[in-house]
Amino acid sequence: MTDHATLYAQRLTTPAVAAALIPSGARVAMALGVAQPPALLKALADRAEADEVGDVNIYYLLSTAIAGETVLRYELTDRLRPHSLFHGAIERKLEARGIEEGRQAVRFVPTGFQQTPHVLTREIGVDTLLATVSPMDADGYFSFGTNTDYALAVSKTAKRVILEVNPHMPRVFGDCRVHVSQVTALVEHAAPLLEAGKAAQQPQDLVIGGIIAGLIENGSTLQMGIGALPDAVCAALHDHADLGIHTELLTPGLVALMRAGVVTNTKKSLHPGKTVFTFAMGDRTTYEFLHENPALEARPVDYVNDPAVIARNDRMVSVNATLQIDLFGACCSEYLNGRQYTAAGGQLDFVRGASASEGGKSIIACHSTAAKGTASRIVARLDGPVTTPRNDTQIVVTEHGWVNLRGLTTDQRAHALIGLAAPQFRAGLEVEARALGLI
Protein backbone atom coordinates (compact mmCIF):
# COMPACT_ATOMS: atom_id res chain seq x y z
CA MET A 1 0.00 0.00 0.00
CA THR A 2 1.33 3.43 -0.94
CA ASP A 3 2.07 5.46 2.16
CA HIS A 4 0.99 9.06 2.72
CA ALA A 5 4.47 10.52 2.23
CA THR A 6 4.80 8.81 -1.15
CA LEU A 7 1.42 10.10 -2.29
CA TYR A 8 2.41 13.58 -1.13
CA ALA A 9 5.68 13.44 -3.09
CA GLN A 10 3.88 12.20 -6.20
CA ARG A 11 1.48 15.15 -6.12
CA LEU A 12 3.97 17.86 -5.15
CA THR A 13 4.82 20.19 -8.01
CA THR A 14 5.41 23.84 -8.90
CA PRO A 15 2.66 26.46 -9.09
CA ALA A 16 3.17 26.78 -12.86
CA VAL A 17 2.77 23.04 -13.47
CA ALA A 18 -0.25 22.87 -11.15
CA ALA A 19 -1.94 25.80 -12.89
CA ALA A 20 -1.30 24.16 -16.26
CA LEU A 21 -3.65 21.35 -15.17
CA ILE A 22 -6.56 23.81 -15.43
CA PRO A 23 -7.84 23.74 -19.01
CA SER A 24 -9.66 26.41 -20.95
CA GLY A 25 -13.37 26.18 -20.20
CA ALA A 26 -12.81 25.05 -16.60
CA ARG A 27 -15.26 25.97 -13.84
CA VAL A 28 -13.09 26.84 -10.85
CA ALA A 29 -14.15 27.21 -7.22
CA MET A 30 -11.71 29.60 -5.53
CA ALA A 31 -11.55 29.38 -1.76
CA LEU A 32 -13.08 32.13 0.34
CA GLY A 33 -11.14 34.92 2.02
CA VAL A 34 -7.98 33.95 3.87
CA ALA A 35 -7.77 30.58 2.07
CA GLN A 36 -7.28 32.08 -1.39
CA PRO A 37 -3.91 30.56 -2.46
CA PRO A 38 -1.47 33.27 -3.61
CA ALA A 39 1.06 31.12 -5.50
CA LEU A 40 -1.58 29.13 -7.40
CA LEU A 41 -3.65 32.21 -8.27
CA LYS A 42 -0.58 34.06 -9.53
CA ALA A 43 0.38 31.09 -11.70
CA LEU A 44 -3.13 30.91 -13.17
CA ALA A 45 -3.12 34.66 -13.80
CA ASP A 46 0.30 34.37 -15.50
CA ARG A 47 -1.10 31.70 -17.84
CA ALA A 48 -4.07 33.89 -18.71
CA GLU A 49 -1.85 36.91 -19.28
CA ALA A 50 0.25 34.82 -21.68
CA ASP A 51 -2.94 33.70 -23.50
CA GLU A 52 -2.26 30.10 -22.52
CA VAL A 53 -5.73 29.62 -21.04
CA GLY A 54 -9.11 31.26 -21.45
CA ASP A 55 -12.85 30.87 -20.99
CA VAL A 56 -12.25 30.01 -17.31
CA ASN A 57 -15.17 30.79 -14.99
CA ILE A 58 -14.12 31.44 -11.39
CA TYR A 59 -16.73 31.10 -8.62
CA TYR A 60 -16.12 32.41 -5.10
CA LEU A 61 -17.26 34.44 -2.12
CA LEU A 62 -15.46 37.30 -0.39
CA SER A 63 -12.41 38.03 -2.51
CA THR A 64 -9.32 39.57 -0.96
CA ALA A 65 -6.21 41.36 -2.24
CA ILE A 66 -4.75 37.90 -2.92
CA ALA A 67 -7.26 37.42 -5.73
CA GLY A 68 -7.54 41.09 -6.64
CA GLU A 69 -3.85 41.27 -7.51
CA THR A 70 -3.92 38.05 -9.57
CA VAL A 71 -6.95 36.35 -11.15
CA LEU A 72 -9.34 39.28 -10.58
CA ARG A 73 -7.25 41.89 -12.37
CA TYR A 74 -9.51 43.83 -14.73
CA GLU A 75 -7.38 43.17 -17.81
CA LEU A 76 -7.79 39.41 -17.33
CA THR A 77 -11.57 39.32 -16.88
CA ASP A 78 -12.16 38.39 -20.52
CA ARG A 79 -10.17 35.17 -20.00
CA LEU A 80 -10.71 34.55 -16.28
CA ARG A 81 -14.36 35.48 -15.75
CA PRO A 82 -15.25 36.34 -12.12
CA HIS A 83 -18.53 34.94 -10.80
CA SER A 84 -19.02 36.47 -7.36
CA LEU A 85 -21.43 35.02 -4.81
CA PHE A 86 -20.55 37.83 -2.38
CA HIS A 87 -19.41 41.24 -3.60
CA GLY A 88 -16.78 43.37 -1.94
CA ALA A 89 -14.63 46.36 -2.86
CA ILE A 90 -12.83 44.45 -5.62
CA GLU A 91 -16.07 43.48 -7.38
CA ARG A 92 -17.51 46.96 -7.02
CA LYS A 93 -14.45 48.44 -8.74
CA LEU A 94 -14.52 45.82 -11.49
CA GLU A 95 -18.19 46.48 -12.11
CA ALA A 96 -17.76 50.26 -12.19
CA ARG A 97 -14.88 50.07 -14.68
CA GLY A 98 -16.77 47.58 -16.82
CA ILE A 99 -19.77 49.92 -16.98
CA GLU A 100 -17.49 52.76 -18.07
CA GLU A 101 -16.16 50.61 -20.89
CA GLY A 102 -19.48 49.05 -21.85
CA ARG A 103 -18.75 45.48 -20.79
CA GLN A 104 -19.56 43.10 -17.96
CA ALA A 105 -16.38 42.62 -15.93
CA VAL A 106 -17.92 40.63 -13.06
CA ARG A 107 -21.05 38.51 -12.74
CA PHE A 108 -23.10 38.10 -9.56
CA VAL A 109 -24.71 34.81 -8.51
CA PRO A 110 -27.46 35.36 -5.91
CA THR A 111 -27.51 32.63 -3.27
CA GLY A 112 -27.68 32.16 0.47
CA PHE A 113 -24.47 31.00 2.12
CA GLN A 114 -25.95 27.71 3.33
CA GLN A 115 -26.90 26.82 -0.25
CA THR A 116 -23.44 27.52 -1.67
CA PRO A 117 -22.04 23.95 -1.60
CA HIS A 118 -25.14 22.65 -3.41
CA VAL A 119 -25.07 25.50 -5.94
CA LEU A 120 -21.38 25.04 -6.72
CA THR A 121 -21.30 21.26 -6.90
CA ARG A 122 -24.72 20.43 -8.37
CA GLU A 123 -26.18 23.47 -10.09
CA ILE A 124 -22.97 24.93 -11.54
CA GLY A 125 -20.87 21.77 -11.48
CA VAL A 126 -17.49 23.28 -10.69
CA ASP A 127 -14.69 20.96 -11.72
CA THR A 128 -11.67 22.50 -9.97
CA LEU A 129 -10.88 23.60 -6.41
CA LEU A 130 -8.08 26.03 -5.54
CA ALA A 131 -7.48 26.46 -1.81
CA THR A 132 -4.87 26.94 0.89
CA VAL A 133 -4.58 24.17 3.50
CA SER A 134 -2.48 23.30 6.54
CA PRO A 135 0.45 20.87 6.30
CA MET A 136 -0.46 17.18 6.13
CA ASP A 137 -0.86 15.30 9.40
CA ALA A 138 0.39 11.80 10.24
CA ASP A 139 -2.76 10.23 8.80
CA GLY A 140 -2.43 11.93 5.43
CA TYR A 141 -5.02 14.67 5.99
CA PHE A 142 -4.83 18.39 5.31
CA SER A 143 -7.03 20.76 7.32
CA PHE A 144 -8.94 23.51 5.54
CA GLY A 145 -8.08 25.61 8.59
CA THR A 146 -9.74 29.00 8.40
CA ASN A 147 -12.08 28.00 5.57
CA THR A 148 -14.13 24.82 5.57
CA ASP A 149 -17.28 26.59 4.25
CA TYR A 150 -17.82 25.29 0.67
CA ALA A 151 -14.27 24.00 0.12
CA LEU A 152 -14.93 20.63 1.77
CA ALA A 153 -17.96 19.87 -0.42
CA VAL A 154 -16.14 20.87 -3.60
CA SER A 155 -13.13 18.73 -2.65
CA LYS A 156 -15.40 15.67 -2.71
CA THR A 157 -16.78 16.24 -6.21
CA ALA A 158 -14.25 18.23 -8.25
CA LYS A 159 -12.18 16.54 -10.96
CA ARG A 160 -9.19 18.61 -9.92
CA VAL A 161 -8.33 19.40 -6.29
CA ILE A 162 -5.28 21.66 -6.34
CA LEU A 163 -4.04 22.76 -2.94
CA GLU A 164 -1.43 25.18 -1.64
CA VAL A 165 0.18 23.91 1.55
CA ASN A 166 1.06 26.77 3.88
CA PRO A 167 2.67 26.17 7.29
CA HIS A 168 0.94 29.32 8.58
CA MET A 169 -2.52 27.84 7.98
CA PRO A 170 -3.79 26.49 11.32
CA ARG A 171 -4.75 22.86 11.70
CA VAL A 172 -8.32 22.90 12.97
CA PHE A 173 -10.47 20.11 14.36
CA GLY A 174 -13.96 19.14 13.20
CA ASP A 175 -15.35 18.08 9.83
CA CYS A 176 -12.77 20.02 7.82
CA ARG A 177 -10.19 17.67 6.29
CA VAL A 178 -9.20 16.41 2.86
CA HIS A 179 -7.00 13.33 2.36
CA VAL A 180 -3.88 13.38 0.19
CA SER A 181 -5.36 10.56 -1.92
CA GLN A 182 -8.15 12.95 -3.03
CA VAL A 183 -5.70 15.61 -4.19
CA THR A 184 -4.67 16.17 -7.82
CA ALA A 185 -1.70 18.44 -7.19
CA LEU A 186 0.07 20.14 -4.31
CA VAL A 187 2.34 23.15 -4.09
CA GLU A 188 4.17 24.41 -1.04
CA HIS A 189 4.18 28.10 -0.27
CA ALA A 190 4.98 29.68 3.09
CA ALA A 191 3.28 33.06 3.30
CA PRO A 192 1.75 34.91 6.26
CA LEU A 193 -2.03 34.63 6.20
CA LEU A 194 -3.95 37.71 5.18
CA GLU A 195 -5.07 39.69 8.22
CA ALA A 196 -8.42 41.49 8.26
CA GLY A 197 -8.32 45.09 9.38
CA LYS A 198 -10.60 46.18 12.18
CA ALA A 199 -13.57 48.26 11.06
CA ALA A 200 -13.63 51.80 12.49
CA GLN A 201 -16.37 52.21 15.08
CA GLN A 202 -18.72 55.16 15.28
CA PRO A 203 -20.52 56.40 18.41
CA GLN A 204 -23.75 54.76 17.21
CA ASP A 205 -22.03 51.36 17.17
CA LEU A 206 -21.23 51.62 20.86
CA VAL A 207 -24.80 52.61 21.73
CA ILE A 208 -26.28 49.81 19.62
CA GLY A 209 -23.73 47.35 20.99
CA GLY A 210 -24.80 48.16 24.52
CA ILE A 211 -28.50 47.77 23.67
CA ILE A 212 -27.94 44.38 22.07
CA ALA A 213 -25.74 43.17 24.92
CA GLY A 214 -28.63 43.96 27.24
CA LEU A 215 -30.86 41.64 25.22
CA ILE A 216 -28.47 38.68 25.53
CA GLU A 217 -28.88 36.39 28.52
CA ASN A 218 -26.09 34.47 30.21
CA GLY A 219 -25.84 31.00 28.71
CA SER A 220 -26.91 32.14 25.22
CA THR A 221 -25.22 30.88 22.06
CA LEU A 222 -24.02 33.57 19.65
CA GLN A 223 -23.72 34.22 15.95
CA MET A 224 -22.12 37.50 14.94
CA GLY A 225 -21.84 39.04 11.51
CA ILE A 226 -18.93 41.06 10.20
CA GLY A 227 -18.11 44.73 10.79
CA ALA A 228 -17.90 47.44 13.40
CA LEU A 229 -21.36 46.87 14.84
CA PRO A 230 -20.94 43.16 15.74
CA ASP A 231 -17.49 44.04 17.10
CA ALA A 232 -19.14 46.58 19.40
CA VAL A 233 -21.58 43.93 20.62
CA CYS A 234 -18.71 41.59 21.47
CA ALA A 235 -16.94 44.37 23.36
CA ALA A 236 -20.10 44.97 25.41
CA LEU A 237 -20.45 41.31 26.42
CA HIS A 238 -17.43 40.98 28.72
CA ASP A 239 -19.60 41.06 31.85
CA HIS A 240 -21.64 38.08 30.63
CA ALA A 241 -21.04 34.45 31.57
CA ASP A 242 -21.20 30.98 30.02
CA LEU A 243 -21.89 32.12 26.48
CA GLY A 244 -21.53 29.74 23.53
CA ILE A 245 -20.67 30.20 19.86
CA HIS A 246 -22.29 28.72 16.74
CA THR A 247 -21.41 31.10 13.92
CA GLU A 248 -20.56 31.13 10.24
CA LEU A 249 -17.75 33.65 10.82
CA LEU A 250 -15.33 33.46 13.72
CA THR A 251 -14.01 36.96 14.43
CA PRO A 252 -11.35 38.40 16.75
CA GLY A 253 -14.19 39.78 18.89
CA LEU A 254 -15.56 36.29 19.49
CA VAL A 255 -12.08 34.91 20.09
CA ALA A 256 -11.52 37.66 22.70
CA LEU A 257 -14.65 36.44 24.52
CA MET A 258 -13.22 32.90 24.53
CA ARG A 259 -9.87 34.10 25.85
CA ALA A 260 -11.60 36.10 28.60
CA GLY A 261 -13.61 33.08 29.74
CA VAL A 262 -16.92 34.75 28.85
CA VAL A 263 -17.50 32.05 26.23
CA THR A 264 -17.30 28.60 27.81
CA ASN A 265 -19.76 26.69 25.59
CA THR A 266 -20.81 24.68 28.65
CA LYS A 267 -24.49 25.65 28.35
CA LYS A 268 -24.82 24.75 24.67
CA SER A 269 -27.49 22.21 23.82
CA LEU A 270 -25.70 21.30 20.55
CA HIS A 271 -21.97 20.54 20.51
CA PRO A 272 -21.47 21.44 24.18
CA GLY A 273 -17.96 22.54 25.01
CA LYS A 274 -17.20 23.47 21.39
CA THR A 275 -17.16 26.70 19.42
CA VAL A 276 -18.56 25.82 15.98
CA PHE A 277 -17.77 27.93 12.90
CA THR A 278 -17.35 27.55 9.15
CA PHE A 279 -14.78 30.25 8.34
CA ALA A 280 -12.55 32.67 10.20
CA MET A 281 -10.98 36.04 9.46
CA GLY A 282 -8.86 38.05 11.83
CA ASP A 283 -5.29 38.78 12.83
CA ARG A 284 -2.29 36.56 13.43
CA THR A 285 -3.24 35.93 17.06
CA THR A 286 -6.66 34.72 15.91
CA TYR A 287 -5.07 32.18 13.58
CA GLU A 288 -2.66 31.06 16.29
CA PHE A 289 -5.61 30.58 18.64
CA LEU A 290 -7.28 28.29 16.09
CA HIS A 291 -4.27 26.01 15.64
CA GLU A 292 -4.90 22.57 17.19
CA ASN A 293 -7.34 24.10 19.70
CA PRO A 294 -9.66 21.35 20.98
CA ALA A 295 -12.29 23.95 21.99
CA LEU A 296 -13.00 24.74 18.34
CA GLU A 297 -14.63 22.77 15.53
CA ALA A 298 -14.88 23.86 11.89
CA ARG A 299 -17.74 22.38 9.88
CA PRO A 300 -19.15 22.86 6.37
CA VAL A 301 -21.44 25.81 5.77
CA ASP A 302 -24.36 23.62 4.68
CA TYR A 303 -24.30 22.24 8.24
CA VAL A 304 -23.34 25.33 10.27
CA ASN A 305 -25.84 27.57 8.45
CA ASP A 306 -28.68 25.06 8.24
CA PRO A 307 -31.57 26.77 10.09
CA ALA A 308 -32.70 23.41 11.49
CA VAL A 309 -29.22 22.85 12.95
CA ILE A 310 -28.97 26.42 14.25
CA ALA A 311 -32.34 26.03 16.00
CA ARG A 312 -31.03 23.04 17.98
CA ASN A 313 -29.00 25.56 20.01
CA ASP A 314 -31.25 26.74 22.84
CA ARG A 315 -31.16 30.52 23.47
CA MET A 316 -29.54 31.07 20.09
CA VAL A 317 -28.91 34.77 19.39
CA SER A 318 -28.02 35.97 15.90
CA VAL A 319 -26.76 39.52 15.38
CA ASN A 320 -26.57 40.90 11.85
CA ALA A 321 -26.43 44.34 10.27
CA THR A 322 -28.63 45.71 7.49
CA LEU A 323 -28.43 48.64 5.10
CA GLN A 324 -32.15 49.45 4.97
CA ILE A 325 -35.36 48.35 6.66
CA ASP A 326 -38.78 49.34 5.38
CA LEU A 327 -41.91 50.15 7.32
CA PHE A 328 -43.23 46.64 6.70
CA GLY A 329 -40.15 45.17 8.45
CA ALA A 330 -38.34 43.82 5.37
CA CYS A 331 -34.56 44.27 5.25
CA CYS A 332 -32.15 44.92 2.38
CA SER A 333 -28.63 44.11 3.55
CA GLU A 334 -26.80 43.81 0.22
CA TYR A 335 -27.72 46.59 -2.23
CA LEU A 336 -26.60 50.23 -2.22
CA ASN A 337 -26.92 53.13 -4.65
CA GLY A 338 -28.61 50.96 -7.25
CA ARG A 339 -25.88 48.30 -7.31
CA GLN A 340 -25.00 45.02 -5.65
CA TYR A 341 -22.87 45.97 -2.64
CA THR A 342 -22.29 42.69 -0.78
CA ALA A 343 -24.70 39.70 -0.79
CA ALA A 344 -27.25 37.91 1.35
CA GLY A 345 -24.54 35.77 2.94
CA GLY A 346 -25.89 33.76 5.85
CA GLN A 347 -28.16 36.44 7.29
CA LEU A 348 -31.46 34.73 6.54
CA ASP A 349 -30.05 31.34 7.57
CA PHE A 350 -29.39 32.63 11.09
CA VAL A 351 -32.49 34.83 11.26
CA ARG A 352 -34.62 31.74 10.73
CA GLY A 353 -32.48 29.42 12.85
CA ALA A 354 -32.32 31.74 15.85
CA SER A 355 -36.03 32.53 15.60
CA ALA A 356 -36.88 28.82 15.76
CA SER A 357 -34.55 28.18 18.71
CA GLU A 358 -36.00 27.61 22.17
CA GLY A 359 -35.59 31.03 23.81
CA GLY A 360 -33.76 32.31 20.74
CA LYS A 361 -33.56 35.85 19.37
CA SER A 362 -32.86 37.12 15.89
CA ILE A 363 -31.50 40.67 16.00
CA ILE A 364 -31.13 42.96 12.98
CA ALA A 365 -29.27 46.20 13.66
CA CYS A 366 -28.39 49.35 11.78
CA HIS A 367 -27.57 53.00 12.27
CA SER A 368 -30.71 55.08 11.86
CA THR A 369 -29.05 57.23 9.17
CA ALA A 370 -26.57 56.95 6.31
CA ALA A 371 -24.60 59.40 4.16
CA LYS A 372 -23.47 61.45 7.15
CA GLY A 373 -26.97 61.79 8.50
CA THR A 374 -28.58 62.95 5.26
CA ALA A 375 -30.50 59.74 4.52
CA SER A 376 -32.68 57.50 6.68
CA ARG A 377 -32.02 53.77 6.83
CA ILE A 378 -35.63 53.33 7.93
CA VAL A 379 -37.55 53.81 4.67
CA ALA A 380 -41.07 53.42 3.32
CA ARG A 381 -39.92 51.03 0.59
CA LEU A 382 -36.60 49.27 0.04
CA ASP A 383 -34.30 50.45 -2.75
CA GLY A 384 -33.06 46.93 -3.51
CA PRO A 385 -33.85 43.23 -3.11
CA VAL A 386 -35.23 41.78 0.09
CA THR A 387 -32.54 39.98 2.09
CA THR A 388 -34.71 39.22 5.14
CA PRO A 389 -38.47 39.15 4.48
CA ARG A 390 -40.82 41.00 6.80
CA ASN A 391 -42.28 37.68 7.98
CA ASP A 392 -38.84 36.67 9.33
CA THR A 393 -37.67 39.91 10.94
CA GLN A 394 -37.85 39.72 14.73
CA ILE A 395 -35.90 42.27 16.80
CA VAL A 396 -34.73 45.52 15.19
CA VAL A 397 -32.20 47.81 16.89
CA THR A 398 -30.93 51.30 16.10
CA GLU A 399 -29.21 53.81 18.35
CA HIS A 400 -32.72 55.06 19.23
CA GLY A 401 -33.85 51.78 20.79
CA TRP A 402 -35.23 48.38 19.87
CA VAL A 403 -38.50 46.66 19.05
CA ASN A 404 -39.70 43.09 18.62
CA LEU A 405 -41.83 43.06 15.46
CA ARG A 406 -43.18 39.57 16.04
CA GLY A 407 -46.93 39.59 16.56
CA LEU A 408 -47.36 43.26 15.67
CA THR A 409 -49.88 44.40 13.10
CA THR A 410 -48.66 46.32 10.06
CA ASP A 411 -49.70 49.64 11.59
CA GLN A 412 -48.00 48.77 14.89
CA ARG A 413 -44.85 47.82 12.98
CA ALA A 414 -44.84 51.07 11.06
CA HIS A 415 -45.24 53.15 14.22
CA ALA A 416 -42.54 51.16 16.03
CA LEU A 417 -40.03 51.44 13.17
CA ILE A 418 -40.69 55.16 12.76
CA GLY A 419 -39.80 55.45 16.45
CA LEU A 420 -36.41 53.86 15.70
CA ALA A 421 -35.68 56.33 12.90
CA ALA A 422 -33.68 59.52 13.42
CA PRO A 423 -35.98 62.28 14.73
CA GLN A 424 -35.55 64.49 11.65
CA PHE A 425 -37.03 61.78 9.40
CA ARG A 426 -39.97 60.65 11.51
CA ALA A 427 -42.55 63.15 10.24
CA GLY A 428 -41.72 62.35 6.62
CA LEU A 429 -41.96 58.63 7.30
CA GLU A 430 -45.40 59.11 8.87
CA VAL A 431 -46.58 60.86 5.70
CA GLU A 432 -45.26 58.00 3.56
CA ALA A 433 -46.79 55.40 5.89
CA ARG A 434 -50.20 57.07 5.50
CA ALA A 435 -49.80 57.12 1.72
CA LEU A 436 -49.14 53.37 1.83
CA GLY A 437 -52.20 52.80 3.99
CA LEU A 438 -50.10 51.49 6.86
CA ILE A 439 -51.33 54.01 9.46
UniProtKB/TrEMBL annotation:
Keywords: Hydrolase, Transferase. It holds the Pfam family AcetylCoA_hyd_C. It comes from the Bacteria. Residues 282-432 form the Acetyl-CoA hydrolase/transferase C-terminal domain. The keyword Transmembrane helix does not apply. GO terms for molecular function: hydrolase activity. Residues 7-190 form the Acetyl-CoA hydrolase/transferase N-terminal domain. Belongs to the acetyl-CoA hydrolase/transferase family. This is Acetyl-CoA hydrolase/transferase family protein. The lineage of its organism: Bacteria, Pseudomonadati, Pseudomonadota, Alphaproteobacteria, Caulobacterales.
